[in-house]
Amino acid sequence: MASEASLRVSVDIGGTFTDLVVEREDCLRLFKSPTVPDDPVLGILNVLGMAAAADGLALEAFLGRVESFAHATTRGLNAVLTGATARTALLTTAGHPDVLLLREGGRRDPFDFTTPFPEPYVPRSLTFEVDERVSATGAVLRPLDVAALEGTCDRLIEAEVEAVAVCLLWATVNPAHERAVGEVLRRRLPGVPHTLSHALNPSLREYRRASSTAIDASLKPLMSAYFDGLTARLRAAGLTGRILMVTSIGGVADVDDATAMPILTINSGPSMAPVAGRAYAFTDLGADEVIVADAGGTTYDVTLVRKGEIPSTRSAWVGAEGTGHMTGLPSIDVKSVGAGGGSIAWVDPGGLLHVGPHSAGSVPGPACYGRGGAAATVTDAALVLGYLDPASFSNGSMTLDPAAALAAVTRDVAGPLGLDAVGAAQAILELTTEQMVRAIEEITLQQGIDPGRAVLVGGGGAAGLNAVAVAGRLGSRSLVVPAVGAALAAAGALMSDLTAVYSATVPAVTSSFDTGKVNRALAGLLGRCREFAAKMPGSGTSITLYAEARYPQQIWELEVPLRVRAFEPGDVEEFENDFHAMHRQILGIADEDSPVEVVSWDARVRIALPGRGGTLTTRLADPRPPSVRRAFVTGHGMADVPVRPLATIAPGEQVPGPVLIESPFTTVVIADTTSTAELGPSGSLIINGGDAA
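The structure corresponding to this sequence follows.
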């Protein structure tokens, strides 16, 4: 039986697998179990049971040793995408009911007239006008008509709304009317949750503020039930430690805070892989220019880390960019494409091959799973090419059916294209690689970054199938595949801090800078950060101040870190210079004779969790000896290829390609004859030379 050392665990629920990472004494262990779409908490308990059994413990005894449980979920995201949220009403200032209709965005192709104008997140039939008005300076132009609001509440009750979003004009400057509306809603609609825009997202942009408020309110009934059920079932199973939820900004929050603001978790899964990828790239290669790629069963998520900083954006979309719904809150900037292990391959009537965006998921899954799936997927193609061991898939928890994979690839791709099965499978993998490359080029070349100069980190259970090929197409100097890369997002949760972001809308221009007004806003933000830190036990606190700034008449802002906690004479000029330098770095030009306009001020507080270290070392045990398997080699076709379990590679050993390097949960395919692999300090696999040079 394992020692009684305390544990930290993290869980990431993906479309195909539920990943669990367990940390004990700075070492990681990885477990995977199929996701249960109808009952995701059951999937969590199943994978926890696997970890308990590995320690020779009952689940209750195992959970009794867990001091913190971190969880990333796509439940809120999926609810918004599928329209499974609560029946939500929007209250807005009289005369402005179209704030969600007159929106940001639009169709990507302006000449594609088949794309309809998107419907507002809350329909006009559930949008109600509040008789009040506040000016841009915060002055009350028209007092709140409480009697009329009481009548509106009668209509809300009659409409049987399940949640209410409140977004009044200039509530970010003077929130008195929004607070009064909140008091009336608490009295008249007890038990119906509501969200006030000034408390959630004090943004200057009306559409973003209204959109985030509506999304948050609509998620509260669903996510409160999910978080409450998760907490109750984990406690009943024996968990006594702290429960944390992963947030979209790349940190974690206590489950009670996530329940109060469920929109914080909407992009929680993709936000964690960059945290882990950055740490492994720096530990193994000292790199601070990093492309982090996370290939799951459904999507391929990529993030660019510049100078060690993970970028965030307030322009994150739920659904298609431009026609979906904008969250309007800070979120890790992640680019996603439908190219995962479960992505379905198909040929259109014109004879063109496609991969994705639809996925077979975990139920029914790829054809080779033998669970009723019939469509050919990327996983089926990899099995046909010999890249996967059918007898030990997912650490031996599943046995794959090569005949079913061969039949699916032959029927869906080889037949329509006039190819043999191997040629069709290779075409599927090559097209998947190209889709991954395009996603990476979109976030690098458009920002003036040569992807060949960055280190590529390949994570996710399906990453190893294409990672070397992607690195070769990009010309990346090195590829890092962490040993725990099959659960990179879950590992990132263990490396994350408790995080909160606060904002204040205090416009300022450097040519007529009101130092007193700005410093009062900064002091307020610092006070909120210290209040957060005071109630959150941790081992260290850091606070960073930012300005969202632009040149006058510009549409979009840049986030500029502040060097000071309060402005003194000379600091304004230094801030101007910092903005000019960032503008030149990101956009290639700067107007150094122009003043700088600040639209809002932000503060980000991070608290290191007790026991959290830096990068976590991993050596996954694997009893299998080296072997040989028939697999596809670029330029040679099917051949006998060495198979090396990752655990058999010694530090300092150079492993030449072609070779299949297997860990319990992923296979790294090196299908060329010029690349070599070795172990990094963290136990990661580092691939250099040849096509990856």
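The chain has a mean pLDDT of 89.
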